[in-house]
Write a structure and sequence with these properties.
heterodimer; A: 285 residues; alpha+beta; 3 domains; eight-stranded antiparallel sheet; 7 helices; 8 strands; 52% helix; rod-shaped; B: 183 residues; mainly alpha; Rna Polymerase Sigma Factor, Chain: A; Arc Repressor Mutant, subunit A; 75% helix; globular
Chain lengths: 285, 183
């Protein structure tokens, strides 16, 4: 009883009757009224008061309006009936729902746009990474080439170094003979050096001291040993701008009085072409 | 359908007839309540022709949504009153009405004032003056704003520059004073 009285004193019932409450608040009042007869009675009393007040404030519409309105409504009751099921308060709820949907859709749109932007950024990042990766690959290839070049160079230098050491060994050793070949009248400026080890029968040509014109593709130089007045073939060699080896090993010979070089057809000849002799040198004793 | 005889029914019979879409309910409703509903509508929309259209719209809604009325939750008149008030307020807030009102202000001032006079001096409104005679005018003013003109409490508080609590109290006090008078 006291609870109902206190509820009435809040003035919420007047707000209920004058249509000031939200749907939720209305349900609350209706639940209260269903539970407490005093509340229900109070609502009825407020309603009756306001009904009388509205009646006192009534304004008579013009006489003919009655028939106009009644004819309009009652002439097509069936058609109108289809709309009839919706209660008034439900109509108030629908716009709220659409608003909620609209905000939801708006939020989804924003999320969609954000996803699209992220996708574009990711693709851009992927492409730039791919490009960088490609550049890195090219660099690696270039570095590998460099490395190979350096390795070749290093091995070349190593070989050159060992050749030079050998030359040093040869020139300082009493077992080796150094034979200097001088240019003939065919090319007086030409000269070259041959190392000969009579005990081991080794013959080496020193490229570093080679001063012969570069031979073409059809010809090669051929080294000869003169043994007791007869030329003996010691092999062919090329003179190039860049020679890989400093020391060139030739065919072996046990004894010789002199060495000579002729320019022959590629592969060499059985006997020397005498007018093509470019250098010659006798073995010193 | 052009009966000139006015029909009146007890509320429970009227409700039953209305819910079973008996045409007699419509006649009775109109005869019993059209003036009261028209009073509310024309306080919100003073232009008679527009108010007449809205009265028709109100009765169409009453007829069509009769199933939405629950006698357990309140009196039939309270329900109809809410429909009439909402119809009128929807109109008041509609774009076409606000535009038309603007034009009327400029072009048709005289007609508008005449229409207002017609409403103001309607013989029916004399009843209300008698009824509120002796009541504090500040209570009645707030009640009229809320009950007849469809102001929300918040709107009334802003319009009158009063705290929200004061508005609520005044509405309640006005109703209590009126109750004393009717009893």
């Amino acid at each position: 009883m006291d609870e109902g009285r206190a509820y009435i004193e809040t003035g919420i019932l007047e707000q209920y009757v004058t249509g000031q409450l939200t749907a939720e608040e209305r349900y609350e009042v209706e639940a209260m009224a269903a539970k407490d007869p005093e509340v229900k009675q109070e609502i009825a009393s407020i309603e009756l008061t306001l009904e009388k007040y509205a009646m006192a404030g009534a304004r008579q519409p013009r006489e003919l309006l009655r028939d106009e309105i009644l004819n309009k409504i009652l002439s097509k009751p069936l058609e109108v009936n289809t709309e009839s099921i919706k209660p008034a308060h439900e109509a108030a709820i629908v716009p709220l729902q659409t608003k909620a949907y609209e905000t939801k859709i708006k939020r989804l749109y924003i999320a969609l746009i954000a996803c699209a932007v992220l996708l574009i950024i990711s693709i851009a990042a992927l492409f730039s990474t791919r490009e960088k990766l490609g550049n890195a690959k090219n660099e690696i290839i270039a570095l590998n080439l460099d490395r190979e070049k350096f390795a070749t160079e290093a091995s070349y230098l190593k070989e050159s170094n060992s050749d030079l050491q050998k030359i040093d060994e040869i020139t300082s050793s009493p077992d080796w003979k150094t034979v200097k070949l001088a240019g003939t009248k065919m090319d007086p400026k030409a000269k070259m050096t041959v190392y000969w080890h009579p005990g081991g029968q080794h013959v080496m040509v020193d490229n570093s001291k080679m001063q012969l014109p570069i031979n073409d593709q059809q010809h090669q130089y051929q080294l000869w040993a003169l043994v007791n007045g007869k030329p003996v073939d010691l092999g062919v060699f090329d003179v190039k701008a860049d020679s890989a080896h400093i020391l060139l090993k030739m065919k072996e010979i046990a004894g010789a009085q002199a060495f000579a070089v002729t320019l022959e057809k590629r592969g060499g000849s059985v006997g020397p072409t005498m007018d093509q002799m470019i250098v010659m040198g006798a073995v010193g004793i | 359908m052009t009966t000139n005889k006015k029909i009146s029914l007890p509320e429970d019979e009227l409700v039953n007839a209305l819910k079973s879409q008996n045409t007699i309910a419509m006649h009775a409703l109109y005869d019993m309540y059209s003036a009261a509903l028209f009073g509310v509508i024309s306080r919100i929309i003073p232009q008679i022709e527009v108010a007449e259209d809205l009265l028709q719209e109100t009765f169409i809604k009453i007829w069509n949504s009769a199933n939405g009325y629950d006698p357990e939750k309140g009196r039939l008149f309270t329900w109809m009153m809410n429909i009439a008030r909402n119809v009128a307020i929807d109109k008041l807030r509609s774009k076409d009405y606000r535009n038309a009102e603007k034009n009327q202000d400029i072009e048709n001032n005289v007609d508008f004032i005449d229409a207002q006079k017609e409403v103001t001096f309607n013989a029916d409104t004399l009843g209300i003056k008698e009824m509120v005679n002796g009541l504090k005018p500040e209570l009645i003013a707030v009640l009229d704003m809320v009950y007849f003109k469809g102001y929300t409490h918040v709107e009334a508080a802003e319009e009158l520059n009063l705290p929200l609590g004061t508005i609520k109290t005044r509405v309640r006090m006005a109703i209590i004073e009126l109750r004393k008078r009717f009893n």
